[in-house]
Amino acid sequence: MSTNLKINPERLWSTLMETAQYGATPKGGVRRLTLSDEDKMVRDWFKTTCEAAGLAVSVDAIGNMFATRPGTDPSAPAIAFGSHLDTQPAGGKFDGILGVLAGLEAMRTLNEAGYETTHPLTLVNWTNEEGARFAPAMMCSGVYAGDLDMATMLAGTDRDGKSFGEELERIGYKGPETVGERRFKAFVELHIEQGPILEAEEKTIGVVTGGQGIVWLDGVITGRDSHAGTTPMPMRRDAMNALAEVALAIEAVALEFGPAGVGTLGEALVLPGSRNTIPGTTTFKADFRHPDAEALTAMEAAFTARCREIADGRKVEIDVTRIWRKDPIAFNSTIVEAVEAAAAANALPARRMISGAGHDAFYISGTCPTGMIFVPCWEGVSHNEEESATEADCGAGAQVLLDALLRLDANPPS
């Protein structure tokens, strides 16, 4: 299947730079936390811009946004695509929003050509993919899919004690649509790779075949606050030194299950936070990932066992709680093949690959046939203000997205 429809890479790049103003940081990145004022700004822009393109915009009760272009068969379920508009606290211009704006560019291209699809096409902004302000990540695609409880998510709070539900209403994006009410024929998500493989191998397109599993663990280490000058070293119950061992244990477990397994201590708090007081309490947040579900389970077990050993040796208590787990997933073969064919039709070098990062597509894959497209980012850097991608690669990704959507419209997955 082939069409002569070509997206406008300059227009796509212009919208990427325009939207980067919403939450722009002095270092050239973006800080657009979920349900913040900056999130409201970019949502307002998205709604207005989609409506100007003739799309019907609706919002569900947890803030997911849907912009739909009708098809010739009103009874056909929509083919959906998109990603997210929120960022990390010190994020970049491309993570998530590329997939949304590339979808908008695809819609504009179809409009300009007067091209009619059989299926309706729906562009989606999933709320709170990052999980940076409100845990967990991929929250509202998870609620949409029925994997996360909506009431629990709405009640969740940020560090300032503000609840997700209150902030959703504050910015005006608690919509009337029932969450999960609409269902799709297929879903495709374009995203920067957030890793170094495509750039290193000089490939333009990553054909994503699935994603690795993720488990998030929260820990509390309890020792005893003591005077730094009067407490002999052997008599200390130092929660900070125990935390140092925990950090190394995370690394050791990941290496044990390597090269596929990875582990990260991404956040820690030391209390009471005084130079001359031995810390009596520390907290930490750990992230383990592996493409095999059994190996992921074994990684968690190995880490908790190591924590027990550290607790005994340091005379502290270590409590570890799993707050979230998402098992590895495999994407739909028809969509994988459509993406691969679209890359080949545009003479773009491509490779199949597993996603190391979590994405909304992971949850959506439980509701309909799903796939993903990756494009390179500079040195694989993401979740960082230096995150960067080229205009050519962003345009190539959008072109493959459009072509893949048209292939799926003609030959939808079963």
TrEMBL record:
<feature type="binding site">
    <location>
        <position position="95"/>
    </location>
    <ligand>
        <name>Zn(2+) 2</name>
    </ligand>
</feature>
<feature type="binding site">
    <location>
        <position position="383"/>
    </location>
    <ligand>
        <name>Zn(2+) 2</name>
    </ligand>
</feature>
<keyword id="KW-0862">Zinc</keyword>
<feature type="binding site">
    <location>
        <position position="84"/>
    </location>
    <ligand>
        <name>Zn(2+) 1</name>
    </ligand>
</feature>
<dbReference type="InterPro" id="IPR036264">
    <property type="entry name" value="Bact_exopeptidase_dim_dom"/>
</dbReference>
<dbReference type="Pfam" id="PF01546">
    <property type="entry name" value="Peptidase_M20"/>
</dbReference>
<feature type="binding site">
    <location>
        <position position="191"/>
    </location>
    <ligand>
        <name>Zn(2+) 1</name>
    </ligand>
</feature>
<dbReference type="InterPro" id="IPR011650">
    <property type="entry name" value="Peptidase_M20_dimer"/>
</dbReference>
<comment type="similarity">
    <text>Belongs to the peptidase M20 family.</text>
</comment>
<dbReference type="GO" id="GO:0046872">
    <property type="term" value="F:metal ion binding"/>
</dbReference>
<dbReference type="InterPro" id="IPR002933">
    <property type="entry name" value="Peptidase_M20"/>
</dbReference>
<feature type="binding site">
    <location>
        <position position="130"/>
    </location>
    <ligand>
        <name>Zn(2+) 2</name>
    </ligand>
</feature>
<keyword id="KW-0378">Hydrolase</keyword>
<dbReference type="Pfam" id="PF07687">
    <property type="entry name" value="M20_dimer"/>
</dbReference>
<feature type="domain" description="Peptidase M20 dimerisation">
    <location>
        <begin position="212"/>
        <end position="311"/>
    </location>
</feature>
<feature type="binding site">
    <location>
        <position position="95"/>
    </location>
    <ligand>
        <name>Zn(2+) 1</name>
    </ligand>
</feature>
<protein>
    <submittedName>
        <fullName>Zn-dependent hydrolase</fullName>
    </submittedName>
</protein>
<keyword id="KW-0479">Metal-binding</keyword>
<dbReference type="GO" id="GO:0016813">
    <property type="term" value="F:hydrolase activity, acting on carbon-nitrogen (but not peptide) bonds, in linear amidines"/>
</dbReference>
<dbReference type="InterPro" id="IPR010158">
    <property type="entry name" value="Amidase_Cbmase"/>
</dbReference>
